Structures are given as C-alpha cells and as structure tokens.
Amino acid sequence: MYFKFTFCPIILLLWASLSFAQNVNVVIHGAASIAKTDDNFVCVTLDWWPAEKCDYNQSPWGKAGILNLDLRYGALINAIKAFNPLRIKVGGSLQDNVVYKVEEVSSCPNFMKREDGLFGFSQGCLSMERWDQLNRFFNHTGVKLTFGLNALFGRNESQTEKGLWIGDWQPQNTRDFMQYTISKGYKVDSYEFGSQLSGSGMGAKVDAKQYGKDVIVLKNLVKELYAHPETQPKVLGPGGFYEEKWFNTFLEVSGQGIVDGLTDHIYNLGPGDDPNMMNKILDPSYLNQVSQTYKGVSDVVNKFRPQLGAWVSESGGALNGGSKDVSRTFADGFWYLDQMGMASTYDQKVFCRQALIGGNYGLLNATTFVPNPDYYG
C-alpha cells in the first residue's frame, strides 16, 4: 500500500532558508498496518459543567455546559457539520450526579454549589424538553452520539471509606430515559457507564467487582429495550483512569460480550496551573511517558477482546479546565496531535477531545464560537 503525505507547513518554513536545495520525493511503502482506527476516530465532548465551575481563580465555562449552551448559533452548527459526521460524547465529571426528569421524577433542580456535593455541586437534572432540543441539534448536525450515563444512581457513599460508593446500581431512571429516547426515535450510537469511577476514582469510585456486576445489568437492559441488534447501542466502560488491577477485575467479573468498548481517560499534562506546562508540551520525552498507559490498556484489550477495542473517551491534556495560557493556543497542538498519533499506534479506536466548547481546552471559543488552533488540528 502507498501513503501520500503533504508537508505544506514544513515546506513553507524551509523554503526561504533552503531555496537552493534539490527537490526530494519521499514515498512511504506501507508493508503492513499496525492498527486501525474507527471511521469516527475524531471525537469531542460536551460537558455538564455549569457557569459556576471554577478552578485556579477563574471560571472559564460560562454558558458552554450541556444545559446552558445556545444551540442556535450558526458558527457552532457549521463547526460540527464540517466533520461530516462528528462523534460527540455527552458526559463528564458531573454525569454521575444527573437525574433524568422522566416518569416518576417530578422535580428537576439545577446544579448548585454545595461543599459536600460530588465535585462541589448538588444533583442536577436533564429535562426531556432539553433532551428534545439536544436531539434536534444532533440530528441537524449529523452527530454520532455517545451518551454518558449516571452510574451512581441508587448508591450511597461509604461511611468508612471516603469517596467509595457502595450498593447496587439502580437502573429504573435509566430505563425510563431509554424508553423515552426510543419512543422519540432518537439515535444513540453508544452508552458509556459512569465517569472516572475506576481505580482510585476522581471525586467518587466504585469497587471493580461491583462495577462489573452493574455493567451486566446495563447490557441486559440495552438488549431488552433495543430489540433489533442492528440498532442496539454499544455499551462502553469504565470511562476512567487506567489502573491495571481494577480494569482486569471488572472485565473478569463482567465476562466477554458485555462491554463492547473499553474506555479510558488521559490527562497526562497534569494540573492546568502548572507553570511548566509549555515545557511539558514541547518535550517529546515527557509526552512519550503516557505510552505506558496506552500499552497497558492495549494489553487488557488483547486479553479480553471487547468488540470495539479501546477508546480514549476523554482527554483534555491538562486537568481542571486546562491551562488558560496554553490550552487554547497553537502550542497545544504539539500535545494534541502527538496524542492522537500515539493513541492510533496503540490501536485506540476513538479519541475524544475534552471539549468541543468550554473550559480553557475547548476547540471553540466559549462566547464567540470562533475555532481555536486545535480545532484545525
């Protein structure tokens, strides 16, 4: 096989200094493929964060969260349509704190700041009116949708171990939500079960054996409600940071054929307020360190053989909204492009960038919807 590459930026940069150099044709003979990405490898997220979400004395989310985003802007619509189609994952840290206002759920509160709440917020709610608006938007823009489900519903936080949530997952609210979604004819490509609950967790965690049992319940629910296999959404999990023992345990408990895709999160640049952020991004040896995570996930996939392989279902580079001085600049592309390339070589099928809009790492400006440099990347 032959691959044709066009190095336009490099040619432009070298033209002045090497104007007398001889032209050279480079042909790469691809003897064999080492990995294959999904047709919709490029993916972005839409997050639940409200305007009150603040980190490092700044509040960069504005009205970019799922519940507040103005879906009528032409610039937003066109930015999504340009990918034809674009995979979008609706989810994020607060997804395990969202109730769906359907059937028996009567009240629909907004997220409110609460010191003892998950990630500092009270429970929030997705009304079916907003779900209708979102689906009209997704249909209009041709989005391929992955939806992150609340995997903490019905559980309680342990009284003896901080951050550990115990008890069985209660699927009734999700059942009602799926039934409504089906009745409206809304298309969901895949459901991801929880966010950042694996291993040591982020804000909350669930025991690997318990998670494995609960994901079986979710899989059976999907198979029951979506009767036709060809239209049946895939089940993804765990949507968290990779820890070898936890990942192996949950997959041993759930067994083969339950989790269709193994999802992990990558934030290898550390906290967004790190003053050395630029140095990290420009240091190939630092960027290469995360290859051990990719290899670990790849080893688990080779062992348990989930149908859809491995996905990076969330990656924003820097934690807590990204870096205000770096994430929205051209320099961030050295991290972003490197990560997509590395993920591909380790057979990660999908790479979801946090976020399409919102925080400092949004691909679009949160108020003007003008693309930041990484959008073009």
From TrEMBL:
GO terms for cellular component: extracellular region; lysosomal membrane; plant-type cell wall. Keywords: Glycoprotein, Hydrolase, Lysosome, Membrane, Secreted, Signal. InterPro entries: GH, Glyco_hydro_79. Gene3D superfamilies: Glycosidases. Its main location: membrane. Residues 1-21 form the signal peptide. It is a peripheral membrane protein. The keyword Repeat does not apply. It is found in: Lysosome membrane; Secreted. It holds the Pfam family Glyco_hydro_79n. The keyword Mitochondrion does not apply. GO terms for molecular function: beta-glucuronidase activity. It comes from the Eukaryota. Belongs to the glycosyl hydrolase 79 family. Endoglycosidase which is a cell surface and extracellular matrix-degrading enzyme. Cleaves heparan sulfate proteoglycans (HSPGs) into heparan sulfate side chains and core proteoglycans. PANTHER family: HEPARANASE-RELATED, OS07G0598400 PROTEIN. This is Glucuronidase 1. It comes from Hibiscus trionum. The lineage of its organism: Eukaryota, Viridiplantae, Streptophyta, Embryophyta, Tracheophyta.
